[in-house]
Amino acid sequence: MRLRFHMTPGSCSTGIHILLEHLELPFEVYLVNLPAGDHRKPEYLAINPKGTIPALQIDDDPALTEFQSIALWLAWRFPRARLLPEASLDAAQAVDLMNYAVATVHGAACTRIFTPERYLPASLAEGMSGDARAGWLDAIQAQGRAMAQDAFALIEARIDDDGRLFGDDLTIADAALFYVTFWADRIELPLPARCTAFYRRMREREVVRRVLAEEGYR
Length: 218
Ligand SMILES: N[C@@H](CCC(=O)N[C@@H](CS)C(=O)NCC(=O)O)C(=O)O
Prior knowledge:
This protein is mostly helical. The protein is built from nine helices and three strands. It has a three-stranded mixed beta sheet with strand order 2-1-3, covered by helices on one side. Helix 4 (88-114) packs antiparallel against helix 6 and helix 4 packs parallel to helix 7. The longest helix is centred in the middle third of the chain and has 27 residues, at 88-114. Bound molecules: glutathione. Residues 11-12, 34, 39, 51-54, 66-67, 102 line the site of glutathione.
């Protein structure tokens, strides 16, 4: 089986990178330089028309282009690694948490923090002074930070006293929650106690250390 993984260091693809390394699968890495606009080039759009990362090409099939679909495929394809908890309700809870991290913490909150300009309607921005524009962008970022903090406060209840989600197994929910807590750390967004314990625990995992080192983080 040929796996081609399209990723950007320090992005949401880090979560998938951790799962791939954890499975000890041979895979080819293709770096997508987002600041340079690689994701908007025709070669990449031919692989993922959405122009986003991560993307995973499995043999010659159309690429999987969502974090959740890639994570679930890996879990189903390699069941012995227990990326999904065995009990059906726990498995559904893992999907619940993964999706909340990806769709709400990342998709709704962090995008406001990282790319506030995308939330400023062009019709509103037209003719706006520089100061007014900066004020709007600040307000959108503040909204994103508040949304992220609200979300982490809810996630708190899903983490045990030792900072674990589903025991010692590394699940697809751990991978998703890891990348958003990693971002929180980088942007100095305060995390509640159990989220912090979870993040510290993940940083101590050998596979996480290796992936972060490969992606250029110490
Ligand atoms: N829904 C996608 C979104 C992934 C996503 O937004 N990735 C960001 C990087 S963390 C990206 O590709 N941004 C480039 C862009 O949106 O132009 C997923 O879950 O995989």
